[in-house]
Amino acid sequence: SFTTFTNEKPWYITTPIFYPNASPHIGHLYSLVTADIFARYHRLENPDRPVHFVTGTDEHGSKIQKAAMMRGMEPRTFCDEISEHFRRLAKGANISHTTFIRTSEERHLNTVHHVWRQLESKNLIYRGTYTGWYSITDECFYTDSQVIHPSPQSEESTPISKETSSPVEFTQETNYMFRLSSLQDKLLSHFLANPDFIYPSNYPEDIIHSLKNEPLQDISISRPRSRVKWGVEVPGDPEHTVYVWVDAVLSYLTGIGYPWNGVRKHEDMGGWPVDLQVIGKDIVRFHAIYLPAILLALELPLQTRILAHAHWTSSQKKMSKSLGNTTDPFQAIEEFGLDSVRWYLTRVGGKFRDDVDWSHDQLSKHHKEFQSLLGNFFLRVTSNTILKRVQDAQTMLKQADTDQAVPISNQETKNWFQDMVSLQQETNKYRAAYADLLEATTVLPDKITQNLRKLDVADAMEEIVDVLRIANRSLSDVAPWSPSSSSCAALVTAEACLETLRVVGICLQPFAPDVAGRLLDALGVEERTWMASKKRGTLNVHDVKGVKLFRNEKDRVL
Ligand code: ME8
Question: What distance in Å separates the CA atoms of residue 138 and residue 321, rounded to the nearest whole number?
Fold first, then answer.
């Protein structure tokens, strides 16, 4: 109806589009899962608002060209093969993306050409000679001051980038240049006016500092075809291909159907601007300077927020395809089950600030913790002993109800009344034992929301863990299975713990969607939105189906 209509645009989130120069590793899975958590959360939080979620592969440029050559393959065939591994990982990891974009697709070519012509028409492109250092690994130029030259004594013979330690080579070529320098003031104003533009906050601080103190250089945005054959042709100049990073960042526009035929209303911009871009800290400059500059030039709104996460390392060295020190995500999923890997990656890496060293032992520890906090709790709450005792309690209560209707003699009425009073007292005692748990359960959804708004995934997950810890502790304290315990204890336990499981199940969906789904199925929970988690549920322990919450998911991956 008109009253409920909002012209809120779809919520839009992206991951980097990855180089298919080698198979994906844990670092790529980490970006995918992080973005997936936000996408899933937003769908639950506002089921009426569509979520667009773009991921994919970045297929052009010398890095890919070289990798294909090493395998003796044509770049396109090579990309077809490796891009498929990324797609398979996204599917295997239950990523809820809505678009998987490949930059070699026709639709993307059109975007790049359209943008190029726009920039040209605004006189932002000119021909110039670029002299400097180029790193194929990073696909970017470095000035002399950004390069470390080997000392004559050292065994190393190649200069490397200060920032990334990747080898660089000296290059001089005539290219098309983009007047990035003309956008310096606008960029600075944007950063100053939007302190939350990049998270964590150390990145914008550094950028503001350099935008204030150093002149932005124009950047080279094409490569001679003689050197980089595998790329988008510069419109009107077959001797040049478009610089792969310009090509790549435009995929976020292609992913939602840009250009929109000149339309500028939110509803017609397919979800633009992007609400959240999840990226690794290695590619901040491209997302925080280059893409915003192009968007400013195109007079499009800038991205709303960027989440730049730290890296997974292996023996303290960044895991990378180029170094070859990677962990295979498929293997980890096969060994521990998908949701335990998702759980470990984001519970440990969900602060995003510090690098984390990958550890098989830690993964195993977190897998066990997750299983015991949730899986064992579920089993204990729904055990046969509890079921039986709940039934006894219910029969007793029913009996009491019937008796109340026909009190026979005065003495019997008295006895009945006393029974009722002690039953009530007992019930209250057990309710008190679960009071903290129910309080924590009630506020859980809002606490998660608050943390996710701050982009703090680790703390959001910690809230779930806290509730499960209280739940396990309260349950052990009441011990409704012990021979000395009453059926009343079981009844109150089922009531409180099933409510906790229901709310936890709903709240777990963004983080561990399979386990959460199985749990909610087992409990018979139909309404699974964020809103529903805040309404008190009325589950019956007799309706709960037995289920194995944790299992390995070979089928999903292969
Ligand atoms: O840079 N730890 O692609 P890429 C955490 N095509 N995250 C990691 C990681 C690690 N060790 N290694 C990679 C590119 N990542 C470009 C992007 S976007 C328009 C173009 C993640 O295959 C992280 O998100 O090298 C990082 O930014 C991205 O993968 C780089 O992937």
Answer: 12
d(CA 15, CA 53): 8
Tokens in use for 512?
Answer: 């561990």
Query: Taking a C-beta distance cutoff of 8 angstroms, is the pair 279, 16 a contact?
Result: yes
Coil/strand/helix, residue 320? coil
Q: What is the DSSP string of 292-309?
A: HHHHHHHT-PPPS-EEEE
What whole-number distance in Å separates Cα of residue 327 and Cα of residue 523? Answer: 36
Assess: ipTM above 0.90: yes
Pocket test for ligand 1, best of 15, 21, 26, 28 (most atoms within 8 A of CB): 28
Minimal CA–CA distance to 494: which of 376, 373, 391, 370?
391
Q: Taking 80 as the threshold, does the pLDDT of residue 201 lie above it?
A: yes
pLDDT(319) > 60: yes
**Residue with token string 């250092």:** 133
Mean pLDDT confidence for 17-23: 96
* 279 touches 31 (CB < 8 A): yes
Indicate whether residue 67 lines ligand 1 (CB < 6 A): no
Question: What is this structure's pTM?
Answer: 0.94
With a cut of 70, say whether residue 296 has pLDDT above it: yes
Amino acid at 227: R
